[in-house]
Amino acid sequence: MIRFNSICLLALVFTQPAYSFSDLGHKMVAAIAWQKLTPYAKQNVERILGVGEKRFINASVWADHIKSDERFNYLKPMHYVNMPKQATVYNRKQDCKKDKCAVQAIHTFSDVLTTGKDKDKLLALRMLIHVLADLHQPLHAGLKEDRGGNWYEVKYQDAHLSLHKFWDNQLVKRMKLDWQEASLQLKLSDRSVSLGQPEIWAQESHHIAINQVYQVKENSLINEQYLKMADEVIKSRISIAGWRLGMWLNKLW
User: Fold this and answer.
1) Which domains does the chain have, with CATH numbers?
2) Is the pTM of this model over 0.85?
3) String of b and e for 52-73 (b: at least 16 CB within 10 Å)?
4) Binned average pLDDT, 10 residues per bin, the chain of 253 residues
């Protein structure tokens, strides 16, 4: 486990851009989670973020909005966990060097929220809300070989872009929902998914990436069949991420 005080002191050199879900994708996840919070969990959230759903929604995108601020460079590896193509299980020692990845970040920030100092809890909650959503985008547990699809170019409409950016941004736009609508239309029943642990969420995303996301050939045009599959996957992952975020916070408090 990372010690929270020590990670704040590190300056790292990164080999992968820390892209993540678009603002809209993160807000959708947060809006779904907000509906699942117990009164006690919501009370604890509001004690840290301030009162109201909007504060919670805005907290979900903070981690992306501070990426240009070098003071927060140490947070960048915590948006993802890349795994080898042949991996079927998450290997902490191999996949999360020095415990700097999304999986261990969720554990670390959760510990801060339950046992840490009050002054550290605002950053911890903002990061937890954000990183839990990131881990459900399949390419945030993609291949080490291409940096989670960042080095894997495809064509979509008239544009050339990385497969990672396509999954982060274009698929969310295709849903044609705002975050308020998503909180109503993408809700899951409590019996349709299990909470589990971040290690399992990473394995799920990696499995989806290998078996579905990478089915488009590099440098080729994304076709309608692929789009149909991808639309369903992204809706499912946003729904599951929102449900799990709510349940995870309920478990913490």
Assistant:
1) 4-252 (1.10.575.10)
2) yes
3) ebeebbbbbbbbbeebeeeebb
4) 41 43 91 96 98 97 94 96 94 96 98 97 98 98 95 95 96 90 77 91 98 97 98 96 97 97
